[in-house]
Amino acid sequence: MTASELRKMFVDFFKEKGHKVIASASLMPENDPTVLFTTAGMHPLVPYLLGESHPQGRRLTSIQKCLRTGDIDEVGDDTHLTFFEMMGNWSLGDYFKEEVISMSFDFLTNVLNIPIERIAVTVFEGDLTVPKDTETEAIWKNKGLKQTQIYAYGREENWWGPPGQTGPCGPDTEIFYDMGKAKCSDHCGPACKCGKYVEIWNLVFMKFKREADGSFTEFKQKNVDTGMGLERVLTIFNGKTNVYDTELFIPVMTHLNNIIGELDAIMSIRDKRIICEHIRAVCFILGDTQKICPSNTEQGYILRRLIRRMIRLFKKAGINQNYLCDLAEVIIRQYQDAYPELAENQTFIKEQLQNEIDLFLKTLDMGLKKADQYLEKTDINTALSGELAFKLYDTYGFPIEFTCELARERGRSVDMESFREKFTAHQNKSREGAAEKFKGGLADHSMETARLHTATHLLNAALRKVLGDE
Ligand code: ATP
Ligand code: MG
Ligand code: MG
Ligand code: MG
Description:
α3 packs parallel to α4 (134-142), α9 (298-317) crosses α12 (346-377) and α15 packs antiparallel against α16 (442-467). It is globular and about 65 Å long. Strands 1, 2, 3, 4, 5, 6, 7, 8 and 9 form a nine-stranded mixed β-sheet that branches. The chain is built from 16 helices and nine strands. The protein folds into three domains: 3-245, Bira Bifunctional Protein, Domain 2 (BirA Bifunctional Protein, domain 2, 2-Layer Sandwich), CATH 3.30.930.10; 249-371; 378-470, no CATH class. A hairpin with a 6-residue loop joins β6 and β7 (167-178). The protein is α+β, with helices and mostly antiparallel strands and 470 residues long. Bound molecules: adenosine-5'-triphosphate (ATP) and magnesium ion (MG) (3 copies). One magnesium ion is lined by residues 174, 199, 202. It comes from Lacrimispora xylanisolvens. Belongs to the class-II aminoacyl-tRNA synthetase family.
């Protein structure tokens, strides 16, 4: 099965069941300054999930371009990508649990022909405030799933809703594909990261509203929100073990392997995967609306980090960075039918990529030299200082996770505590500067502050990840 066949199968299936097809929204959320990118198909539908009436009705389906910067460290494993396509269907106060589970089960077992014994599902196990979702469990059993295929988990795994905030929320049921490996332990289940279970579809039942006092009341409009990863389904359907072995990545991986072969270079499989994944994400970000260029803030900074990470991996293997533009061309060619914006914006994509390569190469060597000199002259057991990490960030444009990666490769760590202090002090300084600049224009000022907050928040999240805090 090809990706375009899968897209069509999904959309046709839900069209047949009375859903209207909506086009993928931009990767950049409109009217939502709290997030940098669209991370799920439900994102553009938020006003309608909250009760506004949608011009196309109460049953909708789409294939949405998504980008999850929070998954950046997982890239290189078998199933996590930063950019991916999410196939979804929605009920805006129309059908609920019974009907959506029936439709999903039908799609999985009759359209995709997945044997029932390869399916495992999870349900919300309940807690002091909300009881166990026995209804969902009963529906799954009714479909023929055995008790051993149904797992119950708590809020961490099976609850949807912004933590601590008021608004719609509810339990979900996640559908996993059993890759057929042996269980890694007696406790092995869908929440285990051993690779036996791959999550393919999430069905969220937005049934509750969280009130300001922390209690849950029934929401006036009961919605269903589902999301299924196209790359993962394609992997499973074609009997592969990872997304890179699907037609979506084979052309770019082959091209990269050819470059490596010709140059007699060496690159680990993980590094190759990161490059193939990031170049695709970069093409989609740049090709989306031509609104984002590499920069030091917000989406532009994410883009910059993705590009600079690839540049360094090329450098590490001794490959000329300009080859990245060839890889971009492979991606553009491959996706131009499904996503014509890539071909339409190809000049912009290649120009921006080349600019960023040229810009970073000016400081990369100096920064690397600086880092290596420091590491050579200091004791092997000490961490790279926060001061140097900040200098590498500020003067040489090294994203922090990049410096961490570099130090790790040399068996060293980074003094993150001290880096964090320096970074925060720097942020505070620019915030004061911004406040000064926007004196008298309150709206602009608060926007700017919000932006700086977002940047700090993102960095802190990245730091927590690097430090293993989350
Ligand atoms: P996981 O637990 O594997 O990280 P998730 O629970 O974070 O997935 P959801 O937010 O439920 O994912 O998103 C719905 C679907 O989108 C998932 O079931 C999966 O098929 C797909 N998906 C989620 N994250 C990724 C990713 N990083 N790369 C590819 N597909 C993804
Ligand atoms: Mg996830
Ligand atoms: Mg999950
Ligand atoms: Mg999920």
